[in-house]
Amino acid sequence: MKQTHNFNAGPCVLPKPAIAAGINALNDFKGSGMSVIEISHRSKDWEAVMDECEALWRELLDVPAHYRILFLGGGASLQFLMVPYNLLERKAAYLETGVWAKKAFTEAFLLGGSAAVKVASSANRNFSYIPKDYEIPPDADYFHITTNNTIYGTEIHDDYDSPAPLVADMSSDIMSRPVDVSKYGLIYGGAQKNVGTAGVAFVIVREDLLGKVSRPLPTMLDYRTHIKNASMFNTPPVFPILIMYETLKWVKTQGGVPGIYRQNREKAALLYDEIDRNRLFVGTAAKEDRSLMNICFVMRSEYADREEAFLAFAKERGMVGIKGHRSVGGFRASTYNACPKESVEALVACMQEFEKKIK
Ligand SMILES: Cc1ncc(COP(=O)(O)O)c(C=O)c1O
Known about the structure:
By secondary structure, the chain is an alpha/beta fold. The protein has 9 helices and 14 strands. The chain folds into 2 domains: about 240 residues, Aspartate Aminotransferase, domain 2; about 100 residues, Aspartate Aminotransferase, domain 1 (Alpha-Beta Complex). The longest helix has 22 residues. The two termini are about 35 Å apart. The site of pyridoxal-5'-phosphate has 11 residues, from α3.
């Protein structure tokens, strides 16, 4: 297989053992003589995967017993709608830190109109920082944040103290750092960065927050439906859940979330140090808000015409997925949990070599 350094923003690099286990299960699930996509989701063997997957979530993130964990279809984007459907009665507060946060707000606004309020935004500087100077309305039903802004490379590094239940889209930094789940009312995300492949979203919800809205809830949009049916009200996306399960098993082998966090900090420090040292490049995110997952940088203005040349140079050396999102430009290296340190070292070496070539 061709050697690459995969910095894709998602779908992205996954742990090799998780992919290998997925291939085995596609061929022959637990010695059943059938593929995992051919068996009944009501079979004992499948239910064991669901149970063990949930147990791993609980163990790895230390999820308290009064929180429920769900595996649902529709990606994080469906959660943008399910959250307000289930929680918004009088007021919902949103922090606008990027495109995904805006999309989450749009759904709340569609449902609740002026009951959905933006408390702060970093749109004035192209979402290059996390707003700090604002108040969370204590009478809000919830306060929604996006902990990692995949496109802009900014991240909220700690668990906020919020007077309203905190709801977090953690699509692109779940399992990358220890999180105090008890500080959140609800955490959700698409699996396809740090916990598997597209096709399944995770939801961790404090059960006592549910059942308080006056609107009738369509069955599939009601979290309680999925709690009652252990995420199997309808046919679950078995293969994405299996990959999630195998990915979590791999996280455990890395020393769990603390071990992964250590690796992520090392990788990010390597690359940010090079960006700050190298005369050709400059980081785009405010230093204190720099993401450990998506590292965004551009060419300094005097070298702006070398952008394409650097992309071609990096491609020749096996770098994949480092072109920045069109709304930021430049480069973005996504260094998710499964991105090996060697890949980051290779990118750093590539930046150093390119610097030497440029007068
Ligand atoms: C922070 C964030 N939220 C939400 C989404 C949307 O996820 P999905 O494609 O699962 O709907 C993404 C996708 O990249 C994301 O990065």
